[in-house]
## 1
Amino acid sequence: MEKHHKFSIWYVLLAIWFVLIIQNYLVSAFAIKTIPYSEFLKLRKENKVIEVAIGANQIQGKIKDGEGPKPKETLFKTVRVDPDTSKLLEQYNVDFKGEIESNFLPTLLSWILPVFIFFGLWYFLMKRMTGQQPGFMTLGKNKAKIYMQEDLDVRFEDVAGVDEAKQELMEVVEFLKEPGKFTELGGKIPRGILLVGAPGTGKTMLAKAVAGESGVPFFSMSGSEFVEMFVGLGAARVRDLFEQAKQKAPCIIFIDELDALGKARGFGTVGGHDEREQTLNQLLVEMDGFDPNIGVILLAATNRPEILDPALLRPGRFDRNILVDRPDKKGREEILKVHLKDIKVEEDIDIEALAGMTSGMVGADLANLINEAALLAVRRNKKKVGMPEFEEAVERVVAGLEKKNRLINPREREIVAYHEMGHAIVAISLPGTDPVQKISIIPRGIAALGYTMQTPTEDRFLMSTSELLNRIATLLGCRAAEEIVFEDISTGAHNDLARATDIARSMIKEYGMSAKVGLVYFAREKRNQFLNIPMEGAVEYSEATAELIDSEVRDIINQQYAKALEILKQNWEVLNKGAWLLLEKEKIDGTELKALMGEASSQSAEGRKKGA
């Protein structure tokens, strides 16, 4: 992994401090001690003068500083007073010279050397910075990461749950391995292949698997890396990318998050021709200009295909769109098997049951789930990961982190217990609802004081009117339980009310499930295909229609609330027993709730027999 170093002012301060230390050391090392002439005579008599250099007005030399066999030598200088000094020096056998030695070298070292060190350090830091941020001459160069054949260890067997997408991409692998097989018949491989799907479904891994299987270089770049502040840089990078790709052909160019670059021109911009549009224009030109038979394949990925420029999607550019969809139950089983290869698990792991508990999750979610389970096993000092850890990990991913230390007063705990039992009893009493797996009053996530976990038995792609109505009744069971038991209501049902209202409004405006409103689509706004983000494009309708829609939504909510009230009144004993059991254990599973329901039904049947 490449390490990035950031420039800091502390580097400059450290360099200055280092220079001052060196200068101080050099000055102290070559410092010349100035002494009086009388002291010089005294030292001379004590035989402490080693050598001198005599000038016209100054004497300079070395003296012994200290006692012992190897005393320290110190430079000295003094003003010359006695003209007969030379005779005196000869008398005491002291070496002397007839000129003063120059101190140019110490002065040079004390000033010039630190300057060289400072500039050397500055040059090193600037070189490191330019290694991270390209200079002026490299602004137009592309920033693509190039993976050679030996760097790619991803194969199709490492990508599970997307069999249809893999089958489509096998043609690309065959073309890169044996291009003559296609050119003999005059066929042409698609110039560009667009992978579309929800985030985390494995689009990037699929692209790497294509390169890994075919054994060709892989250019990887994000769409946002083309767009820069300076006009023309993005277009220059596109040109440079395709030029490098042609030199290394056969190869694969992969552009992740293509919507950052390929958004429809004029979409959401005030001006008509900005830097992003120039970059997109250059990409369109390059895709038209290169011959696919040279072995350059352009792959791109996006989760927002509806905002791409139509010119990108026409034949001759991105000819083929491949959907990388959310995996079904079988696909989730395969993904779990791939990720479980590196995890030590117990023998009784039920992968099929685990796949059933993770409906709607994509590959990234499943990888995170397995990692969470492994971390839980380590925290519990276990040698292998078991099914309890996987179930706990599912709850953690779906509902959030458990907060056992959050203090809730007894009154609120009781309200939460009846709240969750209301959900569970209505859900288990109505046909077509997902089975109740677990009920908990332990706070989780940001605001959830408890939760009722329902696990679907199979993947569903269509829902009937009765199933939607039963789902609304299940959501409203919490408010109904509070009203029956406490004859008062709390704010705990705000999220359930929002979800119930959304389902009812969708039934009226999108699914045509209202006899009064009719089979008309009245959705106020379109939504992103994979991200579920509201988009522009409101459908207009009259105020009278809006009033009718609101009236129908209210009727649906009221009817299902009355149904929930009726169910809970009939199961009053189960509601009480379940709530107190929940307060005692904090968690109960679906089998315990079914046992309570079965016990209550048998008692009521006995009562009816006795009454008869």
## 2
Amino acid sequence: MNEQTPSPVDPGSVEPVALAKALGDRYLSYALSTIMARSLPDVRDGLKPVHRRLLYAMRLLRLDPNAGFKKCARIVGDVMGKYHPHGDQAIYDALVRLAQEFAARYPLIEGQGNFGNVDGDNAAAMRYTEARLTEIAELLLQDIDADTVDFRETYDGEDSEPIVLPSAFPNLLANGAAGIAVGMATSIPPHNAVEICDALLHLIKHPNARMAKLVELIPGPDFPTGGTLVEPAESILEAYDTGRGGFRVRAKWEKEDTGRGTYQIVITEMPYQVQKGKLVEKIAELIASRKVPALADVRDESTEEVRLILEPRSRTVEAETLMEHMFRLTDLETRFGFNMNVLGADKTPRVMNLREVLQAFLDHRHEVLIRRSKHRLEKIARRLEILEGYLIAFLNLDEVIRIIREEDEPKQVMMERFELTEVQAEAILNMRLRQLRKLEELEIRSEHKDLSAEQRDLRGLLKNEDRRWKVISGELTELKKSLQANPAIGKRRTAFGDAPSSDVAPLETMIEREPITVILSEKGWIRAAKGHLAPDAELKFKEGDKGRFTLHGQTTDKLLLFATNGRFYTLGCDKLPSARGHGEPVRLLAGIGADEDVVGALVHQSGRKLVVASSDGRGFIVAEDEVVAQTRNGKQVLNVGAKAEAQVCTPAEGDSVAVVGTNRKLLIIERSELPEMTRGRGVIMQKYKDAELSDVKVFDLKEGLTWTSATGRTYTEANLRDWQGKRAQAGRIVPRGFNKSNRFS
């Protein structure tokens, strides 16, 4: 087998190019392709190429609103094979979105079969679903055969496709658009078409209309799923004036009485593009994790209409307060970004404001009207030429018949005999015998008269710009009337509401207040028992474990935990695990490290002060309100040295501070000697040589120092002169009978 030797490369045909330049040129080509042929809509018809090709292909398949349906697989196949050389699934996804009533404000495709739902379920496969065009889509394609728009070759050069649709419907604003290109994106919400028509009519009458007036006519988006727009009016005006901004949309809800003073909240409309199924899952997670303590249950009772039930835990919870928290914690309130980045008539992408978008649509309709009129004039001119030939034939009918019967070249003879054009002569030769009757002559004369009048009218229209704008105004008025005649699509769906207040009652106000006992074991297992248990109540722990802290509180309280790393951790008492079992590891709830341990626990009391101290004898006073942590990772308050750890956290209630070390030496200092700080190492409270701090107690000197023994017996030492001193002193041996554990309790 002979192998063909490759021809040598001509060194002169190879041009060295820098890698950065080569990559830049190619990436620029890719970016332009993505921007112009995929991601950004055209300002004139509001469509991306895939949507435009879908509608055009369906028109060629004669899938009119009055025709039968065809399989979506057939439609996708035609679009992919003739116009759009991309994946079939991407084309089908675009088709499905145009047919979904909850996604498109004015669907351009009517679907038959499973096209998905608001829960987030996907559409059935394209082999099972069918589709045809809607009346709105017909408006977009109206007069496309009248030379109203330019066509270009398809990707394989075998066919042609429109560059833009004539678009007798303001689709860009009516249905909105979304897309991500290279270095830019677009996000346009749907609007009400009746309001758009009002703004367009006003702009025709007042070309320099103020933005405030246009926004008065188009007050905001109109989403297919309804909801309530709660964006302030000044923010809406700014967004339309700049082409960038955002709109806050809330679910629509109502309070439904269920008898005996109880009620439930019914959500009837969802924010745009929020999947109801995922929303229900999110709310259920919040209930399970007790992040919304006032909410007891969520149920989905939706059929074709949305009906989502929120059941409060108590009748005392205010519905408005509960919903404000639900709006903040879930997608019952969303923010729809607004970025009116579109391709202009010159195919240049830029961000337009509301007036520019409306004007671009009007300019397009004006251009369509001119081209349609010129196309009609050409048609009329050709028809009049033929009709004039017919009239000549009727006036000379006998001679025409003779020429046709006797002459070898009748067309040439007629052209010379009656001064006919070739088109007229050809038309006369193609006449049927039935057209030679007298009635036909009258009809031809009548048609010639009507066409001549229409020709004069169109010529006058092309010469008079004011008349052209009146025609466009008439078309918009008729469109508005047809939309208003069908309230299902013409009536506004999204309502307007007041902007939400920033002053919302905290979640704690919605927690039902109940007494509890917090139990924390030596090994760090925490739980909450209902009611205030007696000190001698029998408590069960895991084998080898025992109780360490037992505190009385309420479900509305916060629990403060002080760890050996000097950090305070905060837990809501309503979120503590039940005491039916052994509880849960506190490290999982509070984010305490495996190498750290809890050395202090107390129920938060606003306005109280605490003394915190480390094992090296340093400490200070801190306001309790300053140690409440907002995150699971806690809040650093006491900075500890490399060889020390946090040891004590106790309320600063008294005028004196007793400090005892592991060397059994006691020192009593005045509380005023300890500084008040929010964070730091503090000052030396008691000095040690070969020992460390064991415990601290704040008390009133006149009442004496008390401590509790292991057996529960209470001791009091009233004469404390021997142990009083200044901070940083070593102190003296503890009084007789002091606990061997060197602790006050």
## 3
Amino acid sequence: MFGEDDVVRSHKGRLTLIGNIVIFFFLIIIARLWYLQIYSGKELYRYSIENTLRKETVKAARGMIFSRNNQLLIHNIPRFDAIIIPQYLKNKNASVDKLAQILKMSSKDIKKTLKKNRGQAKYRPVVIKKNISRKEVAIIETENFKMPGVLVHSFISREYSDKEIGGHLLGYISEISQHQLPKYRKRDKFNYKLGDFIGQAGLEEEMDLELRGDDGHEFVRVDARGRVRKHVSGSEIFSDVRNRKAVPGNNLRLTIDRDMQITAYNSLEGKVGSAVAIDVNTGEILTMVSRPSFDPTQFSRGLTTEYWKSLVDNTKNPLRDRTIQEHYSPGSTFKTFTALAALEEGIITKDQKVKCGPTFKLGRRRYHDWNRGGHGLTDVYKSLKRSVDVYFYKIATQLDIDVLARYARKFGFGSKTGIMLPRETSGLIPDREWKKKRYGEDWQLGETLSCSIGQSYILATPLQLAVAYAAIANKGKLYHPYLIREVFKNDGEVVKKFSPKMVSQVNVSEDSLNAIKKGLYQVVNERKGTAWWYRGIGIHMAGKTGTSQVKSMTSKELFSKCEEMPYKDRHHGIFVGYAPADDPKIAVSVVVEHGCHGSSAAAPVVRDVITNYMKKYHPQTYNKFAEEDKKALKEFWKKEKIRKDKIKKAKEKEKLEKEKEQAEKEAEKSEEA
């Protein structure tokens, strides 16, 4: 048996081993503590502090848009969204039920919204309801401690002062979609994220990078449940962590006159169409309205299903900008350019008279004039004044389509104007090469006849018509139409300035232009002119009416009453005019879809817009002309009364003579009996 010394000796080695193991682990703990407290202390302290901070994006205010007279067209107002951050959502059912009660929503709908966003990072906020009321904001903020993860997000909403008026021109903003992200990131070289609002139409889209500004960020201290406890400056904690202020977007000052916009829109009440007004000496767009329209504010607030459905289901297509995205057969408004081409090519002279009957026969086909009785001897002035179709049919037999196309293109037809708006269409001016390429067929002379009066393949936008007539008015200067005068910062510093840009000087003789302008003056200001009854007071307007057929018609349909046709078969009414006729300042084009007549449907809109312009910008000239027109009108009605009285007396005399003659015959019969 072992003694005590032997037992001690047998355990001594074990105690030494255990002691060494204890010391070893103690040293590891000391090393770990040294690593955590000394070597990595600062870094870990930073991590611990950062766990209590949340970096929040501060959205930059979007730039504002002003009219030429500094009236606010688009501005920003604060709005609020109810959001949930899934990362901090505790006791989900209770929080969702409480929020549903406050927002007057169903818990089921809120859970569906959360489920839809399950794929995104949990720290990203999920919008439950947009544009909540201030009362709802107050309740959520008060009850916040009962609903961890439920917050109110404030943002700046886009507000459009005149709602539907100018909706297409100004455009709208809405959230960028998933499929737009890669496309727009590549296009703009900008790191867009889901939830960002971008311009989706009109000037909002075209000038998006100028308007959007630069987002900032700020740090807030949050508790374990994600609730904001304090807004902090990064520099209070770490020198390299700082808040960054958002930089507002640049503002735009447009060439548009707000009062004229409102006048044009109101004048189109109950109609489907558009109006464009342009300064003939600069190319500045004064008015650009399409109707029916939409309210852009609805898009920026968060489009409701009901409102979107009301737009897409509307057969009149309110989302379509009819000023640049729709093109029409210009009808008789194109006769101006046919006549000019014929004068320049020596096919006619300005005083040469041509006999114009009710029809013109080419081969086996008869081309009808709008007037069943024809117009008799007609010169270039009367051809425009009375819009004589047969006159232009006869010209067309000698005017090659390629020559007509060349003159039309000089005035901007057949190509985009280059205005700073998205999705402009180019219209169409056909020629032999185009038809061969498009249809594989040769051009026919009968097609030239139809083109000479603005029908067949010819297509033009209302903007192109306004630009072309402005060039007629200003002696052949074709200006690039533009909408923006300047881009400027909030402090007033001008970043960009836009000025008139002449595209070309149309090479036509002054004598030919003057002949055309004289004819256009007679259209409005001489009795039997097609727009005589819609000339207005104090504006001395010149212009051309147009009736654009939307389908081929038989002679019977052609002379039937347009207003009695099915709506979709009625002609479009077009009028393009400028004023004052002797010193033009403004040109206006109006198209009214299925309006039947350019005179009754479109000319009154042009008249109203020009009247507003003259009263506002040239009041002395307007007042002078108004006095002259009132005197002339008074004299006209005086003569008209005398003329009607003479006709009435002549009819009464004729009636008396017939009665006397009848009485004499009856007396003779009585005597014979």
